[in-house]
Amino acid sequence: MPRASIAGLGKYLPKRIVTNHDLEKWMDTNDAWIRERTGIETRHWAEPGKETAASMGAEAARQALKQAGLQTSDVDFIVFATLSPEYTFPGSGCLLGDMLGLNGVGALDIRTQCTGFVYGLSVADQFIRSGMYKTVLVVGGEVQSTALNLTTEGRDVAVIFGDGAGAAVLTATDDENKGILTSNLHADGKYARELFCEAPGSFGEKRVTHEMIDNGSIYPYMNGRYVFKHAVTRFPESILETLRATGYSKDDIDLIIPHQANKRITEAVQQRLDVAPEKVFSNIHKYGNTTAASIPIAMTEAMEEGRIRPGDLVCTVAFGSGFTWGANLIRF
């Protein structure tokens, strides 16, 4: 049975860099407060009306295809993970396909927020294992800056998020010691309102009202302490689950690439697993939380820095809204 191997990676970050000092102009916060609580120093924000989830994803995809030595015409299917599509409908995957000239190629959008890319890799792997497709493009792209409440009231969430995109090209391989070895995907909807954006939505009589804007329900809400408590438990659980499924130990892992949610969460996971700090990749200080884009951006950067080499065993793991969580164990 074939399995999916990562043949190429790519990333795209908007040119506009927003520092913690920039945020001080809009809300009652400061650089030291943000660094201490999140580890973030800068984030990139898209240019409104020009850079979108799909357009940034297309740039990342072109890089990934080039690295893989493939043409856009080689892509059989698109999986696009985002919580910030250009439109309520259609999804960003269709827009990405048009930008790449992939007319007629299927596109599936995934809405599992921070866990989106982990889910996307698993879905692509299953398509390839089944023999339905040979080459699948998996993209995570986010424009969150335009949805933030840039006031003191919204600062706990506003200081965290950034924009960007990352992509991976997955191709079929018969090598049993290469590719996505296993994945696990989980969700528990009873915690949905601990990290969510209530409006606009189909829950009420109207999708959008002035009241929603006035009462702030159009902005993301996060119960930070509650999310932290669950995240530091679910991250290691998912990693250990991949190891049990494959017979490896944590010492066999060359690099863990967690969703870049918060530096304190990453450090807590590293300590709970009792692995060396250099085995856990972190770039949140540069980009903030880019949700579904964070893992492919981090994976691309890790490869660029020589921290992922052929033969390495890499674990990607995420936790986020839903609550959703999961992990992939990958042999490069």
Describe this structure in words.
Helix content is 33%, strand content 24%. The chain is an alpha/beta fold and 332 residues long. It folds into two domains: 3-176, 3-Layer(aba) Sandwich (Peroxisomal Thiolase, Chain A, domain 1); 180-331, Thiolase/Chalcone synthase (Peroxisomal Thiolase, Chain A, domain 1, 3-Layer(aba) Sandwich), CATH 3.40.47.10. The strands form four sheets. A five-stranded mixed β-sheet has the order 1-7-6-4-5, with helices on both faces. Strand 4, helix 4 and strand 5 form a beta-alpha-beta unit. Helix 3 (53-68) crosses helix 4 (92-99). The longest helix has 23 residues, at 224-246. It is globular.
Protein topology:
Blueprint: E1 3-12, E2 16-19, H1 20-23, H2 31-38, E3 42-45, H3 53-68, E4 77-81, H4 92-99, E5 106-110, H5 116-130, E6 135-142, H6 155-158, E7 164-173, E8 179-187, E9 195-196, H7 210-215, E10 221-222, H8 224-246, E11 255-258, H9 263-273, H10 284-287, H11 294-304, E12 313-320, E13 324-331
Parallel strand pairs: 4-5, 4-6, 11-12
Antiparallel strand pairs: 1-7, 2-3, 6-7, 8-13, 9-10, 12-13
Summarize the structure.
The chain is of the alpha/beta class.
Count structural domains: 2
CATH H-level name of the largest domain... which superfamily?
Thiolase/Chalcone synthase
Global Rg: 19 Å
Please provide the count of β strands.
13
* End-to-end gap: 18 Å
Helix/strand/pairing category? alpha/beta
| Contiguous helical run count | 11
**What is the CATH top level name of the largest domain?**
Alpha Beta
- Globally, the shape reads globular
- Proportion of residues in extended strands: 15-25%
The spatial strand order of the largest sheet comes to 1-7-6-4-5
Q: H/E order of the elements?
A: EEHHEHEHEHEHEEEHEHEHHHEE
Main beta-sheet strand count, sense and barrel state: 5 strands, mixed
State the helicity in percent bands. Answer: 25-40%
Give the overall pLDDT as a whole number.
97
